[in-house]
Amino acid sequence: MRQFLIAGLGNFGSTIAQALYERGCQVLAIDNDKEKVQDIADVVNQSIVMDVTDRDAIASLPLQPSDIAIISLGSQMEASILATLYFKEMGIDSIMAKAMNEDHGKILKLIGASEIIIPEKQMALRIADRLAHPNVLDMVSVVDGFSMAELLPLESYYGKSLLDLDIRRKIGIEIVAIKHADKSPEGIITERIKGIPSGDYVIERGDILVVVGDDKCIDKYRKM
Questions:
Q1: What is the C-alpha to C-alpha distance for residues 119 and 102, in angstroms, rounded to an integer?
Q2: pLDDT score for 58
Q3: How far apart are CA 121 and CA 86, in angstroms?
Q4: How far, in Å, are 68, 214, 223 from residue 144 at the CA level?
Q5: 173-183/207-214 β-pairing
Q6: Are residues 7 and 84 in the same domain?
Q7: Are residues 112 and 140 in the same domain?
Q8: Comparing 163-167, 185-189, 198-202, which segment has the lowest mean pLDDT?
Q9: End-of-domain residue from the set 118, 136, 154
Q10: I need a surface site. Which of 60, 95, 112, 144 has the fewest CB within 10 A?
């Protein structure tokens, strides 16, 4: 079974390690801080106290080429570079590395990282997109160039059926679910979700469209 190797158990590393474990993934968490390793021991498959800048230590791990390494040492530039290099040398092709900035990311990419994560920048871009285009509530990349997004219906959509709107043909995005929030007289909000809605579903106030599609098509919707 493919495993996820999380090197660095700060806020980012520990959060992604636990989230992967809760989703049924095999997770090996690594840090040179004994207390951090102990804190996460109950929510991952295995946790190890180890210095990931030690090539011999990494070589001792039970690694498979299909494993995915997540280097969460963004604030420790030298350590993140060495860890990325050593995991690459051990045959791990899929390496996601957290970087402090663009230049740090370029170095990590050059020595073998397959994907660079700059959390602050990526969060800032998501917030900027949401503020600039308030009809797009959230957007998550599924694969390169293809995303899932939550969209507010355009004003012209209310009272019309999905069949009449023909969003797939006109815009190129597929509606996979409709979310709707109801508020009781007591102020309690409940959310209901209709998966794969039929063509006769009529858009109403409070609906949120959950869609998948090419990023260019979602961007087209943003500008409408």
A1: 12
A2: 93
A3: 26
A4: 17, 9, 21
A5: antiparallel
A6: yes
A7: no
A8: 185-189
A9: 118
A10: 144
Shared-domain flag, residues 31 and 60: yes
**Residue 215 belongs to domain with CATH number:** 3.30.70.1450
Looking at the fold, whether 106 and 25 belong to one and the same domain comes out as yes
- % of residues, the chain, pLDDT over 70: 89
Residue 86, exposed/middle/buried by CB under 10 A (0-12, 13-18, 19+)? buried
CA–CA distance, 104 with 74 (Å, rounded to integer)? 9
Residues 58 and 30: beta-carbon distance below 8 Å: no
Give the tens place of pLDDT for each residue, 52-75. Answer: 999 999 999 989 889 999 999 967
Neighbours of 224 (CB within 10 A): 10
Partners of 31 in beta bridges: 49
Domain boundary among 118, 143, 174: 118
Q: Which domain holds residue 11?
A: 3-118
Helices (H) and strands (E) in the chain, counts: 9, 11
Q: What confidence score (pLDDT) does residue 108 get?
A: 94
Structure tokens at 145: 């160039």
pLDDT at 185 over 80: no
Which residue, chain included where needed, has tokens 């039929």?
198
